[in-house]
Specification:
By secondary structure, this protein is α+β, with helices and mostly antiparallel strands. The protein is built from four helices and six strands; from the N terminus they run E-E-H-E-H-E-E-H-E-H. It has a single domain, classed as Trna Endonuclease, Chain: A, domain 1. About 35% of the residues lie in helices and about 20% in strands. A hairpin with a 4-residue loop joins strand 4 and strand 5. The radius of gyration is 17 Å and the shape is globular.
Length: about 150
């Protein structure tokens, strides 16, 4: 079954939103998926901290230069769970692509012993967290996610 695409016009650019087959409803955006995952995570694991790295989005050149000088780096994963050493790069269920800068960061983090995974949607992120948490509890951190 093919994914249908719905077109809408924004101020200056054309936005193509993927639609779920059969329903015609738009699939959740990366932002919506990340919000849903963080909400579910906080309910499932109260007291375990999760932080977002707000690197994405448009910034004017002055702000971008200031943030770069402060240490903002392109490609850093979206979320981090310090207690379990897990970094998560969120993507929408369909249509999200991992950039070269993101691949570089994921490989680097994995290489120095952190968990680093790309998750397409909130459900996939929760499954990755559960698998990583079990590996941490069992002392077996050689598993590969994603």
């Amino acid at each position: 079954m093919q994914t249908r695409r719905k077109r809408s016009l924004s101020k200056k650019t054309e936005d193509i939103t993927e639609c779920s087959p059969g329903t015609g409803k738009p699939l959740p955006s990366e932002h919506e998926e990340q919000c849903a995952f963080v909400s579910s995570f906080r309910k499932a694991f109260p007291g375990v901290r999760i932080i977002a790295v707000p690197n994405g989005g448009w910034r004017d050149i002055r702000t971008a230069a200031r943030l770069k000088a402060e240490g903002v780096c392109r490609g850093v994963p979206d979320l981090f769970i310090p207690e379990w050493g897990l970094w998560i790069e969120m993507k929408r269920q369909k249509g999200g692509a991992v950039s070269d800068a993101q691949k570089d960061w994921l490989e680097y983090l994995d290489g120095i012993g952190y968990g680093a995974v790309v998750c397409c949607g909130a459900a996939e992120a929760m499954n990755a967290v559960l698998a990583w948490r079990e590996a941490v509890k069992d002392g077996c951190l050689s598993i590969r996610l994603g």
